[in-house]
């Protein structure tokens, strides 16, 4: 079940389900969920960020710190 629905859980819910002491933790069906949790550990809501400056689409320099308290998407 976790295999099919892992993207519907928040980081905290996924972390709770993927307890390393659980019998199913190393089951191949949990691979996708474990991979997702590994990726989310690096970028889930509430993490501290490293400030950086880059150019926006108009060539203007913009710092990440300008958007403290707001939702920011980066690629």
What is the number of E strands? Answer: 2
Please outline the major beta sheet: 2 strands, antiparallel
Shape: elongated
Query: Strand arrangement, largest sheet?
Result: 1-2
Residues in β-strands, percent: 5-15%
| Rg estimate, integer Å | 17 Å
- The CA-CA distance between the termini, in Å, is 30 Å
The percent of residues in helical segments reads 25-40%
Quickly list its features.
75 residues, alpha+beta, two-stranded antiparallel sheet, 29% helix, elongated
Write the layout of secondary structure elements.
Blueprint: H1 2-5, H2 11-17, H3 31-41, E1 53-55, E2 61-63
Antiparallel strand pairs: 1-2
In words, what does this structure look like?
This protein has 75 residues and is of the alpha+beta class. The protein has three helices and two strands; from the N terminus they run αααββ. The chain has helices spanning 2-5, 11-17, 31-41, and strands at residues 53-55, 61-63. The protein has a two-stranded antiparallel sheet. Strand 1 (53-55) and strand 2 (61-63) form a beta hairpin. The longest helix is centred in the middle third of the chain and has 11 residues, at 31-41. The relative contact order is 0.13. The mean pLDDT is 82.
């Amino acid at each position: 079940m976790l295999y099919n629905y892992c993207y519907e859980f928040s980081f905290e819910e996924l972390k709770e389900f993927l307890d390393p002491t659980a019998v199913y933790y190393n089951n191949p069906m949990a691979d996708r969920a474990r991979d997702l949790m590994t990726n989310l550990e690096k970028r889930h809501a509430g993490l501290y960020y490293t400030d950086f400056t880059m150019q926006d689409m108009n060539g203007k320099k913009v710092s990440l710190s300008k958007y403290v308290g707001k939702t920011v998407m980066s690629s």
